[in-house]
Structures are given as C-alpha cells and as structure tokens.
Amino acid sequence: MSTHYDALIVMGFGGPTSMDQVEPFLKHITGGRITAERMAKVSEHYAHFGGVSPLNGQNQKLANDVAARLRDKGIDVPVYLTHAHVAPFPEQTLAQIVADGHERALVLVPAAYPSYVGCRSYREALAAATPVDDEGRPRLEIAKINPFYDMPAFVDAQIGLLEPVVRAHPDAKLLFTTHSLPTGLSETSGVGGDGYLKQHHRVIDQILAGLANKGLRPDWQLCYTSQGGAPGDTWLTPDVNDVIDELATQGVKEVIAVSIGFLSDHMEVIWDLDNEAAQTARGHGMGFYRVPTVANEPVFLDGLAELVARGLAGEDRRGDDDCGGEDCCPNPGGAVPAVRGVTP
C-alpha cells in the first residue's frame, strides 16, 4: 500500500542504560538546572535498577508492535527509534533516514497530552536536527503526530484495565495519576492554555462514564507524581503520597492507582508508584493496587496503529483547537522553529 510518508519514527523521551549515563541524562533533560540534592535523589532511584531505564526497551517494543500491525494492513515502511535525551539523538536518526534514501518521515511521540515538554519540544528538536542541502533547504519532510488523548482506544484500554480492579475493590479510592508539570507550562499548554489539565479531565470523564456503564462508580481524585525542577519552580499538586496520607486520616482503607499520564511502566511508574506510593499506603496499613499502563494492551495498540496508518497516508484533520501550529505549547524561552504537527 502506498503512503505519503515513506518512513516512520518513534521518538521517545529516552533513558539511561547504565549508572554512568544517569548524571549526563539528568543534566540533559533539565538543561543543567538541577540541584545536587535532586541529582543525588534521582540517581538513587536509578541505582535500584542498575542505572537502566526500562523506557528505551518499552519504546522499541511499541515501535515493533505498531510496525507489525501496519504490515497486517499492507503498510510496510521502515520504523526508526530515536530519543530526545539519549543516543540515538534525532540528528543521528534523521541523517540515517536521509542516507537510506527516504524523503518524508512521520513521527510518533508516545505522549498523549499537550505541554511544551511533551509536544512542542519534540517538534523543535526535530526541526533543529533536520538535514539540509548546500542551499539550506530541508532534505527531509517531517511531521509529528499531535497528542492523542482523544483516541478512543486510549480510553477503552484504561477502562478494560480498571474494571476488574475496581470491581474487586469497590470501596477503594481511585487515584488517577500523571506527571506533575511546572504550573507555568501547564497554564500555557495546548492551544489557548490549560490544555494539559483540561485533556486529563476529559479522559477521566470518559473513563468514569465507561465504568458507570458497567455499574461501577468509584470515588476518585487526580494527583501527581515525578515533581522535580529547579529551586523556585512551582509544580502541579497534590502529590500522590500527600493524597494517600490525607486519605488515611479519613479512614480510607484501600487505594487504586492508575497512571493515565504515562503509556508504559517506566521509571516514573515503577519507582514513584510501585515503590514510594505503595510504601506510603502500606505505612498506613492501607491496601494499594496499581493498575498496569496501556502500552501492552491490544485494543490500545490496534488504535494507535490505525492512527499512524492514517497519518502515513497523509491524512490531517487538525482543527483550531489542536496542537501542531505556532500557537500551542510555547517555548518559555521564546519562539524556536518547529516541524508541523498533524492530527490523523
């Protein structure tokens, strides 16, 4: 089957593969704005896993799973994996794509919600890494798929994972968790601002409606993990551990945690939830149940492959409220060139 784009790139956040890579990785993602205290704390998290983040392997698996589903549809394009913060970096990957003779590449970033760090920063990195000819013209046409919080399969997968856990623990408090952001980045996210929180709440509303259709109506709250940053930054709250502490004072006996902000069980899930939040709950004698993320769910992967297939065909239904233009998720440091975003 012919496509408009002749290559697909899965561009992940990236993570270290050894303890020697942890410090440069953390400096790269923060632009060097990380305190010695924060560096030591996060390095300790990675040390529990030998310095190896599971994220790179998870994104490779995601790329393989999507590629297999595309082939089932008769779409056989090469799939490349690149990372924002560890090698292979975009400049390496895009140079290889050009060397392999490709002219147009579509990019999938495994991030469902808009923000500068989860949307525009990737578009900027791709623009900066695009090879040019002797006259400065791009040698590769690139577009990035916009955040896909509204993909039905994303919500369907969450409902399918949550239903048996909620049914088994009907009195548990359901904690929807996601990555905290600096409040300034949250306020400017999406088109017109506040897209990050608005879209999380839309997803939550759809999940709750799906559970209600199955006779399940849990009490719930949205809370955050992975707060970091430089001194003086203010971040979205409440932290999941603070919420669990408060629930304990209210006599809550069980909590269910589901990470709707991440697609796979990477470091900020297996440490922040499976370790820290679980310990907080158990310290209060509370039951703690963590629902898997969606990355391995067939319904999610089928939906994601269908989204990518439409994108590869050149479909773009981007509306005024969608990311992908100059008016979404602005760089707090000022305007920087970015590749366009598309909404297949």
Automatic annotation (TrEMBL):
Alphabetical list of Pfam families matching this protein: Ferrochelatase
Chain sites annotated for binding Fe-coproporphyrin III: S53, Y122
Record SUPFAM superfamilies: Chelatase (SSF53800)
Pathway of action: Porphyrin-containing compound metabolism; protoheme biosynthesis
GO biological process, one term: heme biosynthetic process
Keyword Metal-binding on entry: yes
Keyword Cytoplasm found: yes
Keywords, ordered alphabetically: Cytoplasm, Heme biosynthesis, Iron, Lyase, Metal-binding, Porphyrin biosynthesis
InterPro entries (alphabetical): Ferrochelatase (IPR001015), Ferrochelatase_C (IPR033644), Ferrochelatase_N (IPR033659)
Gene3D superfamilies, A to Z: 3.40.50.1400
Main location: cytoplasm
EC number(s) recorded for this UniProt protein: 4.99.1.9
GO molecular function terms noted in the UniProt entry: ferrochelatase activity; metal ion binding
Listed CDD domains: Ferrochelatase_C, Ferrochelatase_N
GO cellular component: cytoplasm
Residues given in the record as Fe(2+) binding sites: H179, E268
Domain of life: Bacteria
Subcellular location: Cytoplasm
Catalytic activity: Fe-coproporphyrin III + 2 H(+) = coproporphyrin III + Fe(2+)
Region (Disordered): 315-344
NCBIfam families for this protein: hemH (TIGR00109)
Family, per entry: Belongs to the ferrochelatase family.
Name the record gives this protein: Coproporphyrin III ferrochelatase
Originating species: Propionibacterium ruminifibrarum
